[in-house]
Amino acid sequence: MLLALLGGRPMSASTLADVAGVSASLASSHLRKLVEGGLLVVEAAGRQRLFRLANAVADAIEGLLLLAPPERVTSLRAAVRGQNLRRARMCYDHLAGTVGVAITEALADRGVLVAEARGYAVTAAAPAVLAQIGVRIEQLERLRRPLARRCMDWSERRNHLAGSLGAAVTSRLIELDWVRLSEASRVVRLTATGRRGLGDWLQVDLSRGAS
Predict the structure, then answer these.
(1) Are strands 40-45 and 48-53 parallel, antiparallel or unpaired?
(2) All domains of the chain, ordered by start, with CATH?
């Protein structure tokens, strides 16, 4: 259930029960414990109660995934799902996997990001480069949230971009239909439009795996 919520979208208890393959009563019991333990936050949406990860829990889960042994592949379906997760997925509200790392490294190559001890410095080149896809960095700088953080990618073993800038870039890529979210899954699909757009914007070659 925690891995499902790592996709960044709040989910109902019934949806999480289906994801976990357990009964509604067992899911409710575990969800109650996760809320009491501070790992999940529950919020009302009309008559529904939706669950989401508490702050910083997503980073903790991604960190644990770095230590986890490789998952045993038991079917072709599981193998394909694993490949899709590694290619592009949501890490709460920002893009991870091969696509997320490629974008981050391309932004560094363009001089937008410079790695520091605890994150990334955003340079004077950033506003012009990010404005090309409609991201206004001056609006993000007013937020309390860190602007640009490094997040170690469990599948690539390299960093992808987190923080308010990582979230804003990801949100804009979704709006442009360069990437598409999957229903009830963390998997993100790169579209043909996105493949071309990222090539034009950052000269990123992601020719494989477009939908």
Answers:
(1) antiparallel
(2) 2-54 (1.10.10.10), 62-202 (no CATH)
